[in-house]
Amino acid sequence: TDTVGRTAILIAAKAGRLDVVATLIAAGADIDAQDNISLNPFLWGCISGNTELVRTMVAAGTDLTRLTRFGGVGIHPPAEKGFVELVAFLAAETDVNVNHTTICGWTPLLEAVILQDESPAQIEIVRLLLEAGADPSMVDQWGVSPLKHARDKGSVAIAALLEAALA
Fold this sequence. Notes:
There is one protein chain. The protein is mostly helical. Helix content is 52%, strand content 0%. The protein has ten helices and no strands.
């Protein structure tokens, strides 16, 4: 590792060198080792929106329970950042916990509602999360529900999805 705990496979992942990532996986690299800010190749792919890297890491058997520096699992960053394809993959094709709560008290659904404005991508992400079993009744650390956050932000379409899920 380097001085901040990055492994060769993480450095290759951050550089977009999937060929090197594949070589290191085949050579037995520790795919789950995390650096000083809790990044590993899987979590980096989730944060950066690199679906191909995430698929590679999932196929290699990455630990889906590894946490980001904020205590989130891999689906938190793409849900917050609007990476629809990545949320769709993680929600439908892995057993990542769509109801995991971060140290901030937020689920991926709460992050999708709170940290982005209503857009077609965010509407789709909320739909995907709900379809994958995200619990719309889970509240944040202040007891505020995703529906209340959506209403407070004026997110009409997202609020409608949440209302339907709660019905």
